[in-house]
Amino acid sequence: MAVTRQQDKATVPDRTPTSVRLAISATDDFSPGLKGFAERVRSLVVGLGITARRSVSRPVTLKYPAEKVELSPRWRGALRLTGVLGREDVALIEGPASDYNGLIDDLYRHDRLPPCVGNCPANVDARGQSFLLADDRAAEAYELVRARNILPGVLGRICHHPCESACKRTYYDEPIAIRPLHRVAFERYAEHRAERVAPLPVTREERIAIIGSGPSGLAAAFDLMHAGFEVHVYEKEHAAGGALLSGVPAYRLPRDVLATEIADLQTMGMKLLTGVRIGTDVPIDHLIGEYDAVLIAAGLQVSRMLPVPGSDAQGIWGALDFLKAGNWKGGCGVKGRRVLVIGGGNVAVDCARVALRCGAAQVTLSSLESMDELPAHPWEIEEALDEGVIAMCSYGPKEVLVENGRVAGMRLQSCLSVFDAQGRFAPVFAEEFTDVPADVIVFAIGQAPQLAELVSGSDLVLTERGLLPVDGALMTTQVPGVFACGEVVTGPGSAIASVASGHEAATSIIRYLDGRSLSEGRVYRPVPVYPRYQPATLTGVEPARRRTVMPMAKGADRARDFRQVELGFTHLEGLAEAARCLRCASEVCVGCTFCARTCPDYAITVERIDDPGHRSVTRYDLDLSKCCFCGLCAEQCPTGALRHTGQYELSFYHRDFAVFDRHEMVRSPEGSRATGADCRGCGDAR
Amino acid sequence: MSAAASFGWGALYGLGASLVIAVAALFGVWAERKVAARIQMRYGPLEAGPFGLLQTLADTIKLVLKEDVTPNSADVPVFRIMPFLVFVPCAAALVVVPFAAGWTPFGIEAGALFFLAVPGMSVLGILLAGWSSRNTYASIGGVRAAAQMVSYELPRSLSVLALCLLAGSLDPGVIRAEWSWWWLPLMAIGFVVYFIASIAELNRGPFDLPEAESELVAGYFADYSGIRWAIFMMAEYGGLVAASLFGAGVFFGGGFGLPGPVGAVVFVALAVAMTICMVWAKWTFPRLRPDQLMSFAWKVLTPMALGQLALVGLVLPWL
């Protein structure tokens, strides 16, 4: 040790100063001798004179409480509210379908887009929905949502709600229940349906054919009808709904909800032709000739199967066929049998839960991915496990065990990892095999389109893999006047993403029929990625602030039939949940009180009335004598209503004005209000 | 005078002085806060009583009710007794102030010497208060106080000595009686030295190095709380009042030698004016550095006091 110390001494230069000069302050800068003495005396006298003059001048600070209400007419303060609920309503995001993306893009650029709207593929105005619902204007809320999300009642039950993932309220406590609120709006709309749903006027001569009545086709139909076109929707099955009808089990989506919403569209003027199989019954060329534009929204019809030995045995099902049989026929021959579902996605979970409801003795879900990597939504997996589905994760299918041409079981191989370091699909297996006895095996490993029949005889050419080449942004195909949307374009995905592609296709069709350029000035569907907030700590959060819990049927009860699992909110629960919305980026103070909660000095007082129909902020006070000007309140304001002003720094010199109220804070910087000439006792706009 | 009578009179004087100081501190603190506030363009205390006059009373009640904390490692007996050792000399100094013509509460011939020497004992109290706290800040504060008070003792004594020379007596009562108007120009330098040295003696700004809160938290009384802390504060304001009263009594002949009630009023007004000037100086000037403090005492104030003494010596033969 000693050696190293010596070395240190040798290498480190000695920085000890040879002499230390005392810091010379201004008071030392005087001439030497008597002259300096006189200067010093003079400086003392000048100093005393300054303080004496100060002491006889009028104090500039607060004389509490006498000066509490005295406000300079020009005073705007360190902080400013740009708007207050009750005086300014929260702006609704609605626009014509063809300009909607431009509107969203503009809001995003100006930091005015709420995260829920931004994160939704179809940019549904969830903020506006909450605002209208909390104001007890359910019909308007429903119609606002329907403008972008054609089936609010359906999506309110099945959507994977990316809006809730982005909800800023997660940062404070828990996200708003946006999806259940769609359902609340739908249920409340029943009272208004008769008076508010009316045929839309047909103002254009052109007619449009849509092949497929799934979510994307219906979304496009809705936009096109609003643009004044006549729309004919062709559906090969005997009822409309596409994947919503055949794929989504009734315990998640009751049939009457879908039927009601499609009936609304028919009332508006959509012509639905069911049982028409385009390609076999009517060639697509006929449609192209008959109609001014054709939209292919056929979706994915066939399940992918695994090419493992024995996969042609009796008892092997594809997921779509299995779901269709279970949903429509109420049985798929699994009563009392052991079912093995291969796959880890949402469809696989649906298959497993449908199998349970059809009376299977035992349902096993086998996936290649581990429990944490499952592509299915975590809440779906949880619900399935609650109902009694057995999960076997990290197993790959090896071989179907066949006895007398019937399925007897499946040999599974342990899977070590599914993805490689780059995140690509590259499963690594171990030499370990497990035999699972099963009577029925369902492959739920993906779906593919079946378009060969559909496009036969036309100029449309499929790729080698059977896919239709489509421009993913403009939704155009090789043939002018023929467009495509939905899962044909996006591949297997969410319902709301299909809806969004339907809106895009409709925009392209409108532009095509108007003779405008499809791409010029067009802003593509922007889905900004918002930061996902860490869930807030919930200790100490009042129950009234928490998210309303969705009531669920008990796992053991619900697994036996197709009744709904989620029981829905009551009217009051819906109102309370909608009122939780912070109206992010609206720049209108909604009285959320998070600024007051953030303030370290308790300088802010916020009071509001929360009665439906009379919602307003009644009081907003900032006590400047307590304010330390840290700016945390404006920093965290979710709506952006609370802003720093240019006088932020100057405020240190203006503390004499102790309180400014709501009316002071929302006054605009220019115009007559800023001069203070008006608003003295006139009582306007309060 | 028998020993018992002497003790009785002493106790009476002590009680009287303590009462005067208590009342003076009550209003002194209020006045200081008001003056400081006005200098900083604030209002100062407003709410408690008219013009906030009862604010200090409320503070006193609070201080009396507060817990009397003693640090764990403190020298407990010394720590407990030191506030009184600081307070008693300040109170004692009051008894030799010539309050009226021919009346000094404790008229002794060496009254001026008593006034200069006895408050000097509080140096010991401050030094030991800082030391017994076993706190670095407090100890530094105590040592600084000792150095400062000993240094400024000298010019202060010299300036009063010139006065004694002029009057031919060490008795403040005699000095007051002998006073005539031309002493004012003659003793101007002496008064300035007395005034500045008194501020330094009291450890008040701009000479408040022993309790510089930005450096030493509160200096020698950093660890004191409640009533003991209040006694330190009272000692400071007691010293302030005593220095003002004594200055008004001897340098201004107790109200410019005016007789009767008029003289008494002018005397009190002068003392109040001096007190306010001390507060004014505190809230005007920035704190000195230790080196500036010492060089000011020895290189400026002491020569000035000596010059004053020489001046008086020069004019004395012609009187």
Describe it.
- The complex is a heterodimer of chains A (686) and B (319).
- Chain A is an alpha/beta fold and 686 residues long.
- Chain A folds into 3 domains: 79-88 and 586-675, Alpha-Beta Plaits; 97-300 and 451-514, FAD/NAD(P)-binding domain, CATH 3.50.50.60; 303-445, FAD/NAD(P)-binding domain (3-Layer(bba) Sandwich).
- In chain A, 33% of the residues lie in helices and 15% in strands.
- Chain A has 26 helices and 20 strands.
- In chain A, strands 4-3-2-5-16 form a 5-stranded parallel beta sheet, with helices on one face. In chain A, strands 7-14-8-9-10 form a 5-stranded parallel beta sheet. Chain A has a 3-stranded antiparallel beta sheet with strand order 11-12-13, with no helix packed on it.
- Chain A is globular.
- By secondary structure, chain B is mostly helical.
- Chain B has one domain.
- Helices cover 70% and strands 0% of the residues of chain B.
- Chain B has 14 helices and no strands.
- Chain B has helices spanning 3-39, 55-65, 76-93, 111-117, 122-132, 136-167, 172-178, 183-186, 188-201, 213-216, 226-250, 253-256, 260-282, 290-315.
- In chain B, helix 1 (3-39) packs across helix 2 (55-65), helix 1 packs across helix 11 and helix 6 (136-167) packs parallel to helix 14.
- The mean pLDDT of chain B is 85.
- At the A-B interface, helix 2 of A face helix 1 of B.
Uncertain residue ranges of chain B: none
Structural class of chain B: mainly alpha
Distance between the termini of chain B: 38 Å
**Radius of gyration of chain A, taken over Cα atoms and rounded to an integer in Å:** 34 Å
- How many helical elements of chain A? 26
The assigned CATH architecture of the largest domain in chain A is 3-Layer(bba) Sandwich
Average predicted local confidence, pLDDT of chain B: 85
Helix-strand topology string of chain B: HHHHHHHHHHHHHH
Structurally, the number of domains of chain A stands at 3
Number of separate structural domains of chain B = 1
CATH topology of the largest domain in chain A: FAD/NAD(P)-binding domain
